[in-house]
Amino acid sequence: MFQVLFGKKMTDEEKKRKLKNKINKLVTNNIKEKLWNKYYNNEYDVYCYYCKRVKINPFNCYWIHLSIDNTDIEDNIVPVCENCDIINDNTFFI
């Protein structure tokens, strides 16, 4: 009866995917450009903000959201390499 009224229970992966999609809609290209300038001063082919080992540029970087608690999205998004995105499982790829 409960599933009929409210639908099936979402798994953690489904919740994470749904939250990621909501965040993706909030982050525009203007915000990404502003954040790239904030972290890398408009330079291309720079080293990852976290590991400082892998070179990234604005076209091949991963945008991770560090915290979902803070309402200011721009303070919590960081451009990183693919390795740092995979290693840091508490973040959300954007």
Summed up:
The protein is 40% helix and 15% strand.
List keywords for this structure.
94 residues; alpha+beta
Word description of this protein:
The chain has one domain (11-93). The protein is α+β, with helices and mostly antiparallel strands and 94 residues long. β1 (46-47) and β2 form a beta hairpin. 40% of the residues lie in helices and 15% in strands. The chain contains four helices and five strands, in the order αααββββαβ. The strands form two sheets. A three-stranded antiparallel β-sheet has the order 4-3-5. The model has no long low-confidence stretch (mean pLDDT 76).
Helix content: 40-55%
The sequence of SSEs as H and E is HHHEEEEHE
* Separation, N- and C-terminal Cα atoms: 37 Å
Low-confidence residue ranges? none
Query: Would you report the number of β strands?
Result: 5
Q: What form results from the Cα inertia axes?
A: globular
Strand order of the largest sheet: 4-3-5
Round the Cα radius of gyration to an integer and report it.
16 Å
Supply the number of structural domains.
1
Strand residue percentage: 5-15%
Q: How many helices?
A: 4
Whole-number mean pLDDT: 76
Q: How does the major sheet shape up? A: 3 strands, antiparallel
Sheet/helix structural class = alpha+beta
